[in-house]
Amino acid sequence: QDFRLFAFSIRENVTAFQDKKDDLEEIYKITGIKNWIENLKEKDSTYIYKMFVENGVEPSGGQAQKLAIARALYKNAPIVVLDEPTAALDPISEYEVYNKFDKLVHGKTAIYISHRLSSCRFCDKIMVFENGSIVEEGSHKELMKNTNGLYFYMYNTQAKQYY
Question: Taking every annotated instance into account, which residue ranges of this chain make up the domain ABC transporter (predicted)?
Answer without folding.
Answer: 9-87
